[in-house]
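Reopening: histidine kinase still failing for me.
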Amino acid sequence: MNKLLTRQIKKYLSDDDLKSAEVQNFINAIDRSYINYENQFKMSQRATKISSDELYDANVKLRKDAENQKKIINSLKYVVKVLKLESADNLNDVEESVDLVKFIEKQSNEILAANKIRENLLSNLELKNEELNNYAHIVSHDLKTPLRSIDTLLNWVIEDEDNDLTDDSTEHFSLILKNLEKMDALINGILNYSTIENSELFRDEIKTLDLIKEIKQTLLFPENIELIIDQKLPIVKGDKFRLHQVFQNLIQNAMGSFEGKAGKVEVGVECKGKEWEFYVSDTGKGIDEIYHERIFRIFESLENNINNSGIGLSIVKKIVNFYGGKIWLDSEVSKGTTFYFTIPKTE
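Support: Ran it again with your exact input. Result attached.
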């Protein structure tokens, strides 16, 4: 039996509860779903990591190819400069010219070969990305099917008037439902993370002020948190759904930093030449500097929070990178955090 499930059973269910055949059948069903979820989840993590590593290696190789081609072009420029002779008056000049022609031919062949390799590499990367996206959709479906079954069964047990459950047992079932919601959110996060590159860069004209107001209504801010919105937020072009994800994930992250205490969250922007520099700041508990890089990694979370999937900020970073921007943060423990990110301006 799954170790986590075993601990939860020992912690929350009494011996009398465990004597029930219905409870035992129910626990076995959950255990089988746990096993299926863990296996599929590990496969999804591995696929995502493999794809990221391949993309990184390909990027390094393409950068090296670009540098080599730059050197070749500089060499050719030099050759062209040398060849600017009106005539070859002696044998040495002729031989030198012949050697230079051979050199140019050799360099040209190397450029063609390098371009062919790059085209094949990009073609393979596109194929692998497509396979990864398809895999993510399949895994998402396979993982959600048992979750839906467990959710339905749990709600059926809770709502059954003759279930004879104690208040503690009902509370424990509710806790399981919350964990199911977290699993569902994590699966959706993986799917969103793997399909970001399918977005269109500058598809929609987006009023970011209206976008933040929509997010505020969706998140239902508690009374202890004040949201301050810069009324001069600009109109940008992009994929509205993806930019909605960026702002919502950052605002949700800020909201979770107060731990029930009163505070402020501010969303603003500054004009930085050819870019918009947005920021989301809070007066919450802050983040230690040693975690400033780690929090952007996929499946990384600083706290064991049931509502935190550990994928929100990695999605934000991937979307910002997709637009050619950058993201960073300034933070001081016990005083607050500010996340900054840039989006290029478009005509």
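Helices lie at 3-12, 15-19, 21-82, 91-159, 167-194, 208-219, 240-255, 312-322. If you still see a failure, please send the error message rather than a screenshot.
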